[in-house]
């Protein structure tokens, strides 16, 4: 679990931290009544408020890095407090899987892999 100051560091320093060295696993730990936050959760495939599922902010390509930065800035702008962030070194990645299945995403991240949503997978081609 990250402290509040470390969350702020992710929000402010994503462009410096992510490229090549780290990826961030985002998990939802609660609900929200804000419509914009619900849409953000849907974009990140974090639709279950029970903590199941995971979303990875990664820099495997330049377009994925830019997308990760954009999403983090949106999270910061909306002041989303119901997320947990886990910074992991990219050197420990064992697999990269593309899926929109929430439970499979959770299992892959627990095994040390990166999960890409279909939207992120489309950005790999660019």
Poorly predicted runs of 5 or more residues: none
DSSP helix fraction? 40-55%
State the helix count.
Answer: 5
Kindly estimate the percentage of residues that lie in beta strands according to DSSP: 15-25%
Distance between the termini: 33 Å
Strand order of the largest sheet: 2-1-3
Folded structure, characterized:
This protein is an alpha+beta fold. The protein is built from five helices and five strands, in the order H-E-H-E-H-E-E-H-E-H. The strands form two sheets. Strands 2-1-3 form a three-stranded antiparallel beta sheet. A two-stranded parallel sheet has the order 4-5. Helix 1 (4-17) runs antiparallel to helix 3. The longest helix is centred in the middle third of the chain and has 17 residues, at 62-78. The radius of gyration is 13 Å and the shape is globular.
In short:
With 126 residues, the protein is of the alpha+beta class.
Task: Outline the secondary-structure elements.
Layout: H1 4-17, E1 22-28, H2 35-43, E2 55-57, H3 62-78, E3 83-89, E4 96-98, H4 102-110, E5 114-116, H5 118-124
Parallel strand pairs: 4-5
Antiparallel strand pairs: 1-2, 1-3
Helix pairs in contact: 1-3
Question: What are the key terms here?
Answer:
126 residues, alpha+beta, 5 helices
């Amino acid at each position: 679990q990250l402290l509040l100051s470390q969350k702020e560091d992710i929000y402010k320093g994503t462009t410096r931290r992510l490229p090549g060295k780290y990826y961030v696993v985002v998990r939802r730990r609660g609900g929200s009544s804000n419509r914009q936050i619900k849409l953000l959760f849907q974009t990140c495939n974090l639709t279950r408020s029970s903590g199941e599922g995971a979303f990875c902010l990664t820099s495997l390509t330049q377009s994925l890095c830019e997308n990760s930065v954009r999403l983090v800035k949106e999270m910061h702008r909306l002041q989303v407090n119901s997320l947990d962030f886990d910074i992991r070194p990219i050197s420990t990645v064992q697999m990269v899987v593309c899926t929109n299945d929430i439970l499979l995403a959770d299992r892959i991240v627990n095994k040390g892999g990166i999960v890409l949503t279909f939207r992120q997978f489309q950005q790999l081609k660019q």
